[in-house]
Design a protein that fits this description.
Layout (H helix, E strand, L loop, with lengths): L2 H9 L3 H11 L8 H17 L5 H10 L2 H7 L10 H16 L12 H17 L11 H13 L5 H14 L10
Helix pairs in contact: 1-4, 2-3, 3-6, 4-6, 5-6, 8-9
């Protein structure tokens, strides 16, 4: 719940300023029912102010968590009292979405954080199972320099490619001939 926003709306006693602040919070996206949702929120704030109820949680419950009949009873003697129960329900859905949204980046995945980690680990395991095998070995400085020379002479893109080349040649019993003159 956007508690601070609702508190500020309840403190505001100027009707026109109230409508402007609600219009900023509920932008016109072209979705049906936006105007009804704005009117319902304006009327709900005014009813709460008139009844000296300044608790944002009470306002949130009245607008978002109550049934359409309870909301209609809460909004009696206002412009919103004439709105159909179906329109009130769609306004409640819109208001609930607006008043419960969190700040920051929107969620990009339907998975929970734990499920995202599990999927990432699974992808990592599948990638490791491919045609690559990780070997951690320590090499002397001389071996590293020899590997760099082989990598350079045979135009290998990485040390892994150079090691693959050397091992394949050693198993086949052939001598590596440099591609370029070093």
């Amino acid at each position: 719940m956007k508690k601070k926003f609702l508190q500020n709306l309840l403190k505001n006693d100027h009707g026109e300023d109230l409508r402007e602040r609600i219009a900023e919070a509920i932008p016109a996206t072209g979705a049906p029912g936006i105007d009804v949702a704005r009117q319902v929120l304006v009327d709900a704030v005014e009813v709460s102010q008139n009844n000296q109820k300044r608790d944002p949680a009470d306002l949130y419950f009245a607008v978002c968590s109550s049934t359409a009949a309870q909301l209609a009873a809460f909004l009696r003697n206002t412009k919103s009292a004439e709105i159909s129960s179906h329109s009130l329900l769609s306004a409640q859905v819109l208001l609930k979405e607006v008043l419960t949204s969190k700040t920051g980046r929107k969620k990009t995945s339907d998975l929970s954080r734990q499920e995202q980690l599990a999927v990432a680990q699974s992808r990592h395991r599948e990638k490791a199972k491919g045609n690559l095998k990780r070997i951690d070995v320590w090499l002397t400085h001389e071996a590293v320099s020899n590997l760099a020379t082989i990598q350079r002479r045979h135009a290998c893109r990485s040390q892994a490619e150079a090691i693959d080349l050397v091992l394949a040649a050693a198993v086949e019993g052939r001598i590596l001939k440099p591609i370029e003159n070093a």
